[in-house]
Amino acid sequence: MKLNRKLRMGMVGGGPGAFIGEVHRKAARMDGGIELVAGAFDINPRKSKQMGRELGLNPKRVYRNYKEMIERELKLPESDRIDFVSVTTPNNWHFPIARDFLNAGFHVMCEKPMTFNVKEAKALQKIVKRSRKVFGLLHNYTGYPMVKLARDMVRGGDLGKIRKIVVQYPQGWLSTPLERTGHMQASWRTDPKQSGAAGCMGDIGTHAENLSEYITGLKITNICADLTTFVKGRRLDDDGNCLLRFNNGARGILHASQVSIGEENGLAIWVYGEAKSLEWHQEHPNYLYVKEPNGPVQVWSRGNEYVAARSPAAARATRLPFGHPEAFFEAFANIYCNFADTLRARLARTKPDKLALDFPNVDDGVRGMLFIDSVLASTKSKQKWTKMKK
Length: 390
Ligand code: NAD
Hints:
Layout: E1 7-13, H1 20-29, E2 34-40, H2 45-54, H3 66-75, E3 84-88, H4 94-103, E4 107-110, H5 118-131, E5 135-137, H6 145-155, E6 162-170, H7 184-189, H8 192-195, H9 200-216, E7 220-228, E8 239-246, E9 251-257, E10 268-273, E11 277-281, E12 287-291, E13 298-301, H10 305-310, H11 312-316, H12 328-347, H13 362-380, E14 386-387
Parallel strand pairs: 1-2, 1-3, 3-4, 4-5, 6-9
Antiparallel strand pairs: 6-10, 7-8, 7-14, 8-9, 10-11, 11-12, 12-13
Helix pairs in contact: 1-12, 4-5, 5-13, 6-9, 9-13
């Protein structure tokens, strides 16, 4: 039987002035199937309460910290209790929070990078598998319809054997020591105790890594990396350049930067096959460019029937007709939508639609952490080329 009610969402993080928590709240409610009912929104309990008031939540469901949230939610009747929690705190908190909610029987949606290190990532993978709970990871760029179209084209063989992948994520917002001004998002991202062993590579390099593997279905096997900290006194990398090898023999280039002045969120990917190539830009996400030898560039435009015919996943991820741009919020909502449909099926003890299973999961999170680890190992090593661990 279908589950005919809204899913009850809780949130950890996303307090006053936070960035991504509010994006989660907007994305989760976009399709009307999820309702935020509880939270421990801030590291400061007073601010958590303030956020709850601003969101108009029942004050009894706004908690001082996540441990209190687990304890008190478990005391509620199952019909009131949250179904899942979204973890939107800085990286160092992802693992303990996700672990404790899973162990208490809740489903989890978690921000990236999934954990603080590989050890935690592997432990979380075991907990997720053992718990049989639904676990989603916010590599939100895989939620774009044209990324799904690209995935279906590449994996469907339209490009022929893949020879080369170029993927970039340049930003410029950390080109000055912004963290010394008290800037909230810059402060923890440049602090190894909160961000992890990598800065820029962990924060946005992992998105590029995830996008390359999602679209191509290939796995990075070897990395030759060069991480740099350009801003004096900064404790983590703010720029990184990697050569990649993939498991089919394809070669790749991945670069991520937070000191590339003038760049905003320039995530983009080029995939070159033996027959064709394609190109996608996050800042112009409604278009996918397909190129072939001795022919004009094809521009595939989101919302058209020819896109739906080639990629049912892209059609499912589309809300507006062509020419009305969809972007960041919609892609984010697509991750929530698939996660929620899968969770609804789980709660109703039915099988989810196959297309609903298309959202990043704990295995992608482990790949991300292994990627960071290998980039750091390569940067430090004299030999440079480093095997990505499994
Ligand atoms: P932020 O600094 O804007 O907000 C973090 C929030 O978490 C703050 O409200 C803080 O008080 C709260 N917090 C910290 N520890 C907490 C705890 N133990 N319990 C409850 N609340 C706690 O950070 P942000 O930029 O929103 O980033 C948060 C996370 O989201 C990071 O892991 C980041 O990598 C990720 N992120 C992902 C994307 C994406 O596109 N998927 C974009 C931005 C950030």
